[in-house]
Structure formats: C-alpha cells, structure tokens
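Input/output pair, single chain:
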Amino acid sequence: MSEPFVLQRSGDQRWLVRPPQDPYGDGYVYTIATELHELGMTASTVAKVDGLYAPLDTTLSGFVESLAADWEGWSGTRTWTSLERELVIDARHDGRGHVSLGVTLRAPGPDWDATAWSARAVFVLEAGEELTRLARDLTHFLHTWQQSQ
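Output:
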C-alpha cells in the first residue's frame, strides 16, 4: 500500500498521512510522513509514533476512535501528541454537533532551535457520521499497513 490517507476539506485544505515505516524493524516505533495543505501553504514532517505494542489509547487510531465514540460531546480540548511532538492533534466539540480537529506539524528537534517552525490547520467535522468515518478510515489505513508487515 503506497497511497496516503487523505482528509480533504473545501478548497485545497487537506491533511495527508503516508504509510507508516518501521525504521528499526522491531515494531516499537514507527515513523509517519505527514503533510498539511491550506491556502497555498504546504508543510511536511516525519513524526515518530507508538508501534504495534503500544496501548490503544496512546495511538493515533485509538485517539480518533475515542473521539468518534464520544460523538455526543465532551468539554475542553482533547490532545494526542507524537513521541517527539512533530505531530499534534487536538479536538474540541462545540456541543452543537461539530468537532474542530486541529492538526499541527512541527520541525523535528527542539522548539527553541532557530530553525524551528510549525504549521496548523483546523478541520471542522460533523460529530456523528463524518467523525466516525474519519476514525474508521484512518484506523483501517494504519492497521492494514501493520498487518502487511
């Protein structure tokens, strides 16, 4: 599988997640190349994420599945972060049936580095079917890759 997972919104707003790679061949840490596109901006980074042996609630797929399971709402912001903060996902429920899903990409390395950068896009999703479809499709994408390894 070489096609990326894509969350596409109006215009050119999209988030791409490329198939995970297992750089050490041990299943513990994966890298995921990811991109954001919005209003002429393009940003990309490679994030280190938990591998096959991680508890579900620490994984990206576990995070989006928990959002979909709580589609009726929650208070505050829920956040998932890759191992070294290159990819941060935050979610807020508006209490009226929509979820704002913020995707932030950062340059690898320390935040204080003079070459540090970050890029952020917010995707507004319907809290029921649309969020459930996102969780199902992203989980299927990540698990299909893992099963092929």
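Residues 55 and 62 are 9 Å apart (CA to CA). The first helix runs from residue 60 to 69.
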